[in-house]
Translation initiation factor eIF4e (Didymosphaeria variabile), 339 residues
Amino acid sequence: MSETARLIGMLKASAAQRIPYAQPLDLNLLEDPAFISIKTGHTTYKGVTQAPNTFSEALHSIADGQPLPPPPNAPFGKEFLPRLDFVITTLNNHTVRTISKTKMAGRLPALSTSDLPSASPSEASATASPARGSAMLNSIFKSVRVPEFKYRWQFWAEKGQQQPPPKTSSTTAGAEEYANRPKPLGEQIISVKDFYQHFNNIPVESLKLRDSIHLFHLGVKPLWEDPRNTRGGAWYFRIGKEQASQFWHEICLLAVGDVLQGAVETKRASFNDDICGVSYSVRWNAVQIAIWTRDADNEAGKEKLLQTILEKLSPELEPKKDSYWYKAHKEHKGFAAPE
């Protein structure tokens, strides 16, 4: 039964001449055998514990989808239609708005349609769903120019070894093997798109003991003896393995986003400081993450860099005071001074 028919049935079941919003409905005039009087004086009809006593309650029952009493068997009087028209007019002008603000507050409106023509082939093609997954990303990157980083970067992979390289400046087999250990991974990185295409495919959690992953400026090799690194050093952070991946992720973003670079930049004419790269190295019971700088003598830059790292990292990643230190490359036992 439609809502209109249910409402008319309720109106037919009442004997009131003009029904204000809260005027009682005289349902006692009904002598339908389906009604059963109970001790409380209310009426029970087909599972409804209480029939509506007022026009307001009847409309609330309609809104809640409850069954309403059927019309009486007796014929209607000559004044029925004028009373019905009055109530419907009142409903349109006032009652529906009142119910919407009170009983139905918080409900979402519903729109139902029927007998609508189907979409034409041209309309269907114009409203087709866009591509998903990689197809959608490729479409976006083709139509939108991705901003490029200030510097170009490259990932490197290094398989660890137990013994340090020979401490000699001559070109020996051992020194060559050490210098050739870092291998470039993928292509150069010039945007966030390139970064995540590489980063998301490097499972650092699967690295073995003493293996390393490096992210360095393009053209700089992750070796102490690289010409751009020989006068530099690094901040080292010893991080628990459960937090290492997130720590590494945030350090990489601070690097490619030039946040770290801004902390060490100088305006000296002879030798400026730079962030050369960052490293992730697996140790016995922790992970060592390093931020390489070009100038180990830039004391102000080193302190500002440390402060920037501690401020920019997520609070849960804040390292303990005894878990980080700075060390110049030339202070390592395996450092081989270039000729």
User: Anything to note?
Assistant: The first helix runs from residue 3 to 13.
